[in-house]
């Protein structure tokens, strides 16, 4: 059996400067839900982790890339860019990853709005 790239029951991809991330974290903590916190800007996801995340989200990368970031234009991404190129750009510039994302054993969800993370745990 392959080792999980996201160990533990739940992992929250978190940016403390993001109000949506703080909101998701607060919702989980208020319900005493145990989770690992990964500060993905300080500990970027690898391409393999990003591919696995796309699988768990069940969505192509273009659905959870932050288009408004300068790094999006700098990477020359657009609506026609393929998933591999977007995942590569995300690996190099993690600010491009939509946030927050809660990852479970076999699923993941983008917490936009933050209350959506509760769908994964309840």
Descriptive notes:
- It is built from 5 helices and 4 strands, in the order E-H-E-H-H-H-E-E-H.
- Strand 3 and strand 4 (108-110) form a beta hairpin.
- It has a domain at 10-40 and 99-122.
- It has a 4-stranded mixed sheet with strand order 2-1-3-4.
- The longest helix has 12 residues, at 19-30.
- The mean pLDDT is 93.
- The relative contact order is 0.24.
- The protein is globular.
- It is an alpha+beta fold.
Order of helices and strands: EHEHHHEEH
What average pLDDT do the residues reach?
A: 93
- Distinct helical segment count: 5
List the uncertain runs. none
What spatial form do the alpha-carbon principal axes imply?
globular
Structural class: alpha+beta
Q: Please give the alpha-carbon distance between the first and last residues.
A: 27 Å
Strand content: 5-15%
Number of strands: 4
The portion of residues assigned to helices is 25-40%
Major sheet size, sense and barrel closure: 4 strands, mixed
Q: Compute the CA-based radius of gyration.
A: 14 Å
Main sheet: strand order: 2-1-3-4
Give the key terms.
four-stranded mixed β-sheet; 122 residues; 34% helix
Short note summarizing the structure:
The protein is of the alpha+beta class.
Task: Write the SSE topology.
Blueprint: E1 11-14, H1 19-30, E2 36-39, H2 47-57, H3 70-74, H4 83-92, E3 101-103, E4 108-110, H5 118-121
Parallel strand pairs: 1-2
Antiparallel strand pairs: 1-3, 3-4
């Amino acid at each position: 059996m392959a080792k999980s790239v996201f160990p533990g029951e739940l992992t929250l991809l978190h940016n403390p400067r993001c109000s949506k991330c703080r909101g998701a974290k607060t919702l989980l903590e208020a319900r005493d839900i145990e989770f690992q916190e990964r500060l993905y800007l300080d500990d970027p996801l690898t391409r393999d982790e990003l591919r696995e995340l796309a699988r768990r989200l069940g969505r192509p990368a273009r659905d959870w890339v932050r288009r408004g970031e300068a790094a999006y234009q700098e990477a020359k991404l657009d609506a026609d860019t393929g998933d591999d190129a977007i995942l590569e750009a995300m690996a190099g510039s993690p600010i491009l990853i939509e946030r927050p994302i809660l990852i479970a054993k076999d699923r993941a969800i983008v917490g936009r709005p933050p209350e959506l993370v509760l769908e994964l745990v309840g």
